[in-house]
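Side project, low priority. Logging it here so it doesn't get lost.
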Amino acid sequence: MIFVDTCIVIDYINGKLEIPKHQKASLYMNSIVENEIIVGVKNKRDLATSNKKISDFPMLDIDQDIMDLSTKLLNQYKLSHGMGLYDSIIASTCMIYDLPLWTHNKKDFKFLDIELV
């Protein structure tokens, strides 16, 4: 099981990254990644394509434990490392579910105790 960051899903949607069908079942995302994708669409066709491709990934719930950890991460890293809200929730999801994070933006997470792939 691996958590996929928004940048990976965007590359998949745009055809820059091929993910074999059998691998998709072990790649997870949450509603934060989903929302970041939807915010970036430019028209109805992009929205439909994005939603279809997003549905390929199993979703993880964001619960209060994740939000509590996210708050702790923001308190600790917002000023020193520029951590943003969405990244803190993504990082917290990985930490709570004990999943590695597949991302191109390793600089945004390298200071955390998360395996980056």
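Brief comment: The first strand starts at residue 2 and ends at 4.
Revisit when time allows.
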